Amino acid sequence: MGHLQGMRSVFKCVLFVSITLCAIYLISPSVKLLIGFKPIEKCHLESAKMLNLDSSVDASLNLQSRPDVLTCTYWKAAIIWEGMFDPRLYDEMHKMKGSSVALTVFAVGRYLDAYLHTFLNSAEQHFMVGLPVTYYVFTDMPEKVPNIKLSPLRSMKVIKVEKNSRWQDVSMMRMKSISDVIESDIRHHCTHVFCFDVDQVFTGRFGSEALGDSVALLHAHYYHLPKYLYTYDRNPNSKAYMETGDFYYHAALFGGSWKNVKALTKACYQGIMEDKQNNVEALWHDESHLNKYMLLHKPSRVLSPEYCWDTSIGFRRYIQVTRLLWAPKYYDTLRTP
C-alpha cells in the first residue's frame, strides 16, 4: 500500500512539473523568445524520392528548401512547409484523381454564434479551393447555422447532436459522431476527411498539398519545446498513457483518407469510453487519445505549425505564411453552462 501511494506521489509530481513549466512558457514572452532560437533537427533524407510517398507528386518536394526547419520524420513522412511544394502540381494531380474532401466541424452552444460564420466564410476563400468540398456541421441548434453562399462543387450538411453539459464531453464525444457519419455518409461521397475545431480562421491557402492517408498537425506551442515538456497523459491508468512520443500533435485539426480517419476516431472513442468505465479522464481529453493513436499509427503526412498558428506566440522567422489562425478564446463565457 505504501509503495502504491509512493508511485502516485511521483506521478503527481512529474505531471505538476511538466504542466508548470509549460504554463511558464505560455505566459512568459521572454521564455517564448528564447525557445524561438532553440536549434532544431534536420531532415536526414537527401531527396524526397526517399520518402514513404503519399502520392507520386510528393517526390517533387524540396526537402532542402527549408534548412531552418525539420522537413521529414524519422519514419520518412514529409513535414509540409511553405516553399517545399509546387501547389499547381498537387491541385492538378488531385483533380485528375477525383479527390473530394469532407470538412467536419462542431459548433455547439455559444460556439455557434461566436465562430461558425467566420469559420465557414474563411474556409470558402482558402480551404481546398478547386476541389469538391462538403461541410458537415455538427450542432445542437441546426436552425441557427448561418446561410453561407457556397462556391460551385461545394455543399453543406447539418447534423444535429446533443449538447453535453461539460465542454470536455463535447470535445471527446465528437470522435464517435465523426466515426458514425463517416460510416453512414462520408465514405460514399468523399475520398478524404479533415476535422476542425470551429474557433479558428483560415487566412491563407490550405490546399491539396495537405491531403494524405493520415495527416497530423504539429502543435504551434510545442514545436520548439523539448520533449520532456510535452504534456502527454502520463497516468498509467488511462488508455491515453504515454511516457514519451515523437511530436506533440494538435487535435484542432486532423485528417486523412476516410478509412484512416474512421479508424482513428473509432480507436479514440473506444479509449475514451474505457477510461470512463474506470473513472479516468485523459489530461487533454481527445487530444491525449489522438497523440497516443499517432504514436502507435504513424501519420503519413505531418503539417507544420503554419497550418494552425497562434499569433500570441509572437514573431517566428520559420513561419513564412499562416494558413489557419487561432481565433480569440472566450473560455469564461463560452464554456459556462
TrEMBL record:
Active-site residue numbers: E287
Where primarily located?
A: membrane
Name one molecular function that GO assigns to this entry. metal ion binding
Q: Does the keyword DNA-binding apply?
A: no
Q: Where in the cell is it found?
A: Membrane
Quick one: which residues bind an alpha-L-fucosyl-(1->2)-beta-D-galactosyl derivative?
Answer: H219, T231, E287, D310
Cofactor or coenzyme needed? Mn(2+)
What superkingdom does the record give?
Answer: Eukaryota
Q: How does it sit in the membrane?
A: Single-pass type II membrane protein
One cellular component GO annotation, for this chain's record? vesicle
Family designation: Belongs to the glycosyltransferase 6 family.
Query: Under which name does UniProt file this protein?
Result: N-acetyllactosaminide alpha-1,3-galactosyltransferase-like
Q: What is the lineage of its organism?
A: Eukaryota, Metazoa, Chordata, Craniata, Vertebrata
